[in-house]
Amino acid sequence: MSTTIADTLFEAQTAGRAVPMFADLADVAAAYAVQGELLDRYRAAGQRLVGWKAGLTSKAKMQQMGVDEPTIGFLTDAMAVPEQTTVTVADLVHPRVECEVAFVLGRDLPADGCTVDDVVAATAFVVPAIEIIDSRYENFSFDLPNVIADNSSSSRFVLGGRGVKLDDLRDRTTLGVAILRNGHVETTGASAAVLGDPAAGVATVATIAGGLGHRLTAGQVVLSGGITAAIAVDPGDNVEARFQTLGTLGVRFE
Ligand code: OOG
Ligand code: MG
Fold first, then answer.
1. Best mutation site among 57, 98, 158, 187 for ligand 1, i.e. most ligand atoms within 8 A of its Cβ?
2. Would the CB of 153 count as within 6 Å of ligand 1?
3. Does 70 contact ligand 1 (Cβ within 6 A)?
4. Under a CB-based contact definition with an 8 Å cutoff, are residues 123 and 216 in contact?
């Protein structure tokens, strides 16, 4: 049964096509089994696992999507988009952008009981990120098992150029961010919106991944979770994320 769901979602993700939600997805465990099969399919297609992401770790995101439990998704090399390049909207269903603090690991994280202190000790540096999410479900609407099966709406991600060591941040929980679309501020927030501390988003990813038999390893990137609600984008849009201290990055849509 789950093979059929993974096949359908892999096709929907790679073709940028919407599908109805799966009514027969029993629970979160079944949903992560589908996500695991999806990862196998991406690897079989020649893509490399480069990291992980947290989903639904902020109140703004939980309220926007009507789901109140954190999730994880995987990131592959083909999902990475260089800064200031153009994303083709026609390849996607209905993309939205989020701003996130991305952690780049210098050491492996514990797969069991990962704490914020473990994350801080293992982080090489953080960079500002824009995540482009794209639910494969009609109307961007889903329940918890369905969003997990759909790899937590992962689609593309953009990392900003300059890495900053956590030690060089005065306070990683009060980093201000603003998302601009075509020069207008669409939303603003602070990094504490993610579970009180974006490092807690990373610890959550490590713990959920650990329960699934995956370990977060040195060199991987972890998106700690959208700080604000996600912003829908249209062809022609120019998106810029301005992060206090971490800097600014942008991406265009056509
Ligand atoms: C699920 C993915 C959420 C985040 O940062 O909260 C996510 C969704 O909202 O479609 O990436
Ligand atoms: Mg996100």
1. 98
2. yes
3. no
4. no
Q: State pLDDT tens for residues 149-170.
A: 999 999 999 999 889 999 999 9
- pLDDT tens figures, 211-246: 999 999 999 999 999 999 999 999 999 999 999 999
Residues 6+ apart with CB under 8 A from 39: 49, 74
- For 142, the token pair is 């889903």
Q: Cα of 122 to ligand 1 centre, how many Å?
A: 24
Residue given tokens 């919407």 in the structure block: 18
CB 129, CB 104: distance < 8 Å: no
- Please state, in angstroms and rounded to a whole number, the distance separating the CA atoms of residues 193 and 58: 5
Separation of alpha carbons 151 and 148, rounded Å: 5
DSSP helix/strand/coil, 92: coil
Contact 133 CB / ligand 1 (< 6 Å):
yes
Residue 104 in this model has a pLDDT that exceeds 70: yes
**Which ligand has an atom closest to residue 135 CA?**
1
The length of the chain, given as a count of residues: 254
Ligand whose nearest atom lies closest to the CA of 70: 1
55 CB near ligand 1 (under 6 Å): yes
pLDDT tens string 6-56? 999 999 999 999 999 999 998 999 999 999 999 999 999 999 999 999 999
The sheet carrying 184-190 orders its strands as: 86-87, 247-253, 238-243, 176-181, 184-190
